[in-house]
C-alpha cells in the first residue's frame, strides 16, 4: 500500500484529482495526466497536468477548478502564475494542478521529474 501524506480520505482525494483532470479535458486541454505521487512527494498525493491553448483558457479554468475544489472541501492554498501566463499552478494541498502552455510543459518536463509515479486512469468509464 502506498502511503499518503494526507489525512483526508484517500478515495476522496483520488476522486477529486480525477475530477480536475476531467474538467481540464472538458475545457479542451490536451495531454491531461494524473500522476499518483503518494510516497514520492512530501507535499501532495496527486499531480494533475494539462496543456492549454491560451493564457485566457488557463486563467479561467484555474478559477473554475478552484470553485470545484471549494465545493468539494478542497480549498486551494492559492494560485501561482508566471508573468507571461504560460504556467498556472493551483495548489489544493493534496492535489496540485499544473496548467501549461505546451512549450513550457516540455521545458519543465514534470513527467520526467515524476517518472516513477503511476498514471491514474481518469477518463469517464475508466476510473
Could you explain how this protein is built, in words?
The chain has 127 residues and is α+β, with helices and mostly antiparallel strands. The chain has a single domain (10-113), classed as Beta Polymerase, domain 2 (2-Layer Sandwich), CATH 3.30.460.10. It has four helices and five strands. The chain has helices at residues 10-26, 55-71, 102-108, 110-113; strands at 30-36, 46-51, 78-81, 87-91, 95-100. It has a five-stranded mixed beta sheet. β3 (78-81) and β4 form a beta hairpin. The longest helix has 17 residues, at 10-26.
Provide the structure class. Answer: alpha+beta
Domain module tally: 1
Largest sheet: 5 strands, mixed
The CATH class is Alpha Beta
CATH-level-2 architecture: 2-Layer Sandwich
Low-confidence stretches: none
Chain-averaged pLDDT: 89
Instruction: Give the neighbour order of strands across the main sheet.
Output: 1-2-5-4-3
Helix content: 25-40%
Secondary-structure element string: HEEHEEEHH
In what range is the share of β-strand residues? 15-25%
User: What is the C-alpha radius of gyration, as a whole number of Å?
Assistant: 13 Å
> The CATH topology is what?
Beta Polymerase, domain 2
Counting DSSP E segments of at least 2 residues, the number of strands comes to 5
Helix count equals 4
CA distance, first residue to last residue: 18 Å
Question: Given the C-alpha coordinates, what overall shape results?
Answer: globular
CATH superfamily membership, which one?
Beta Polymerase, domain 2
Amino acid at each position: 500500500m502506498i502511503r499518503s501524506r494526507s489525512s483526508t480520505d484517500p478515495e476522496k482525494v483520488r476522486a477529486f484529482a480525477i475530477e480536475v483532470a476531467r474538467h481540464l479535458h472538458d475545457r479542451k486541454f490536451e495531454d491531461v495526466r494524473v500522476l499518483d505521487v503518494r510516497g514520492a512527494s512530501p507535499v501532495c498525493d496527486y499531480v494533475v497536468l494539462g496543456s492549454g491553448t491560451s493564457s485566457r483558457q488557463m486563467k479561467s479554468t484555474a478559477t473554475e477548478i478552484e470553485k470545484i475544489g471549494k465545493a468539494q472541501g478542497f480549498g486551494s492554498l492559492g494560485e501561482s502564475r508566471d508573468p507571461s501566463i504560460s504556467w498556472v499552478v493551483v495548489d489544493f494541498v493534496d492535489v496540485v494542478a499544473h496548467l501549461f502552455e505546451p512549450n513550457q510543459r516540455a521545458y519543465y518536463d514534470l513527467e520526467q521529474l515524476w517518472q516513477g509515479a503511476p498514471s491514474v486512469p481518469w477518463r469517464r468509464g475508466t476510473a
